[in-house]
Amino acid sequence: MSDPRPTDDELLAAYADGGLDPRDTARLDAHTDGDPDAAAEVDGLRRTINAVRATQPRPTAEPAWDQMARSIRAACDPLPAPRPRARWLVRLLRPRVAAPILAIAAAATIALIWTGRHSAAPQPQRLVAASEPTAGDSLPPDTAPDTLAGDPATPPEALPAVAALDDGQLDAVLAVLDAEAPNLSGDATGADSSSDDTTAVGLFGDDAYASWVDDLDESQIDAASDYLATQPG
Amino acid sequence: MRALLALDEPNDLADSPASAAARAEPDPDRPLVDQFLAGDRAAFDTLVRRYQQPIFYLCLRYVKGDADAMDVSQKVFVRAFQSLARFRGDARFRTWLYRIAINMSLNYLRDNARERPTDLSTDAPPDAALVRRATGPMRIIGDEESERLREAVAELPPKQRMVLELRIYDELPFREVAELANCSENSAKVSFHHAVKKLRAMLAPQGDGKKDER
């Protein structure tokens, strides 16, 4: 994103409010020192700023801060303590790792759906005119949209399919992890905001990406932890 | 009806142009965040104590009335408690928390259609100490002018208003203002300048013609 440098005139209010870095401040100091009009302008801006500061909305009565803090504590106490992302999970969420997993999961799902459809007893075909359903209609199970089939990057729906992976497929996933492990880094804070993360968010969607992390159950976490515990390094 | 500046979720702070600079400086709240994530709930209580007042005042600017502002403020902290595990550290904790507060205030307004953003007016008079700080020895702002100024601030374009309020009321550095307004630091400074100039011009015609003079 281009960020054109402001002119000195456009920085005057920030200057008047003491918000410039030392270099810009020194330059505008010199500018206003030699220009009475500029100095008057800065003075007027500063007084406007101060006048606005005086209009800060105030409560009708001083809030009971202690009580507020206690209320917040009481509201939070029943909540489970947040679980920071484990290091292995950060690794797992790298798109170079997650994307193949999701692709395999989606493929497995497609295969399961395909297998299920072809092994089930034939059902009478229900033809539905395009104009027939209304907004309130719910589709019968066998006509539900197959969102996974055409979209391998749909993690929340695809996740159940991970559990359906057979040993061979899991081996393939783990092989990917092994291949990627030397390149993976980052800590539980996710402070390393590499382009990988951006890609992952783009792949999953921001909310889905976060939900995917949160939706992992304990058995999945345990399984992954057990696996990673066996890995060197 | 005044337009509101729509904002993304807190995680989007990582994409704001000012976030790179923010990452270069240590976050003074980070140790408490880490303690909390390690299981020390008292660390979160400390963060609450540290920020409950500024968050309340921020919410008060959006929602109408002390009680609603208090309610939204408390929900902000509960949301922060629940979401802190997802805090990536790309922005300062304070910036992240402010973003939650802004978003929740806007959500509150959306969910309570009868409500609308305050026009920066409350029944309470401006704090006397602030008035003295603002005017110094030069002049005293009258209630009428103060009211006009509040209305003028409320009439600013949403981005200019947000930048102005975060800078003047919350006293945030421009870098953090920029992150919250989802723009570059330079852009925040320019928006601030235009906002102040506009306020000065709005006030001038109805003044006595000498109010900006010593």
Overview of the molecule:
The complex is a heterodimer of chains A (233) and B (214). With 233 residues, chain A is mainly α. In chain A, 57% of the residues lie in helices and 0% in strands. In chain A, α6 crosses α7 (155-163), α6 runs parallel beside α9 and α9 packs across α10. The relative contact order of chain A is 0.10. The model of chain A is unreliable at 123-160 and 180-210 (pLDDT under 50). Chain B folds into two domains: 11-118, Orthogonal Bundle (Rna Polymerase Sigma Factor, Chain: A), CATH 1.10.1740.10; 120-207, Orthogonal Bundle (Arc Repressor Mutant, subunit A). In chain B, α3 crosses α5 (93-111). At the A-B interface, α1, α3, α4 and α10 of A face α2, α3, α4, α6 and α7 of B.
Strand content of chain B: under 5%
Indicate the overall shape of chain B: globular
What is the count of structural domains of chain B? 2
Flag low-confidence runs of chain A: 123-160, 180-210
Residues in β-strands, percent of chain A: under 5%
How would you summarize the topology of this molecule?
The complex is a heterodimer of chains A (233) and B (214).
Chain A (H helix, E strand, L loop, with lengths): L11 H5 L5 H12 L2 H18 L11 H12 L10 H6 L2 H25 L35 H9 L3 H14 L14 H10 L1 H10 L2 H12 L4
Chain B lengths: L18 H6 L5 H8 L3 H22 L3 H18 L9 H19 L16 H8 L7 H12 L3 H11 L5 H8 L3 H19 L11
Helix pairs in contact in B: 2-3, 3-4, 3-5, 4-5, 5-9, 7-10, 8-9, 8-10, 9-10
Gist of the model:
Chain A is built from 11 helices and no strands.
Task: Provide keyphrases for this structure.
heterodimer, A: 233 residues, mainly alpha, 11 helices, 0% strand, B: 214 residues, Rna Polymerase Sigma Factor, Chain: A, Arc Repressor Mutant, subunit A, 2 domains, disordered N terminus
